[in-house]
């Protein structure tokens, strides 16, 4: 579950979020829509600690992980290695130098969940954009997140790949995760999300 209450954030005196509220239950898929600059990304970035809010409360049951429009994977490493990095925060430095077997097994299960187990040993640079985005989701799963935040996850993808990623996010919600996706495509939001939250300009 994700609960945001009264979130406030300004940049250089310019107020971007002025008391933003959002609650997403486990098993719920919420699409966040709104004009450019309305603060959608900022709200999600505050949840994962990439921005520091000026005020408000953020509650997450378990942990939240984010996937981005620009997919941050290491292209010369395999899909499996990239997913393993999701576990880094809970590994000691020594154990993170070479991912232990149990992490690789968990990462493999995450790749299975996104339908890419058969590409595990492929270098990420050789995967399509849609496949890379699904690897990024697998890495979020390997962080053991219960809340998935997706910031324009399909904006850089062709329509078919976009549908696959939206179906995947929908499936994760169906499995009980709380999912929030910033979207610029209202029709995708209407098709896949349970609820649409529109941010004002
Ligand atoms: N680190 C920052 N420093 C200064 N201004 C910022 C910073 N991050 C965001 N902003 C500004 O805050 C406003 C909201 O940005 P944000 O990216 O959250 O909007 P958005 O709704 O996600 O927009 P878009 O749909 O274009 O991605 C914008 O005017 C942006 O320029």
TrEMBL record:
<dbReference type="GO" id="GO:0005524">
    <property type="term" value="F:ATP binding"/>
</dbReference>
<dbReference type="InterPro" id="IPR003439">
    <property type="entry name" value="ABC_transporter-like_ATP-bd"/>
</dbReference>
<keyword id="KW-0547">Nucleotide-binding</keyword>
<dbReference type="GO" id="GO:0016887">
    <property type="term" value="F:ATP hydrolysis activity"/>
</dbReference>
<dbReference type="InterPro" id="IPR017871">
    <property type="entry name" value="ABC_transporter-like_CS"/>
</dbReference>
<dbReference type="InterPro" id="IPR003593">
    <property type="entry name" value="AAA+_ATPase"/>
</dbReference>
<keyword id="KW-0067">ATP-binding</keyword>
<keyword id="KW-0813">Transport</keyword>
<dbReference type="InterPro" id="IPR027417">
    <property type="entry name" value="P-loop_NTPase"/>
</dbReference>
<dbReference type="Pfam" id="PF00005">
    <property type="entry name" value="ABC_tran"/>
</dbReference>
<feature type="domain" description="ABC transporter">
    <location>
        <begin position="2"/>
        <end position="201"/>
    </location>
</feature>
<dbReference type="InterPro" id="IPR050086">
    <property type="entry name" value="MetN_ABC_transporter-like"/>
</dbReference>
<protein>
    <submittedName>
        <fullName>Phosphonate ABC transporter</fullName>
    </submittedName>
</protein>
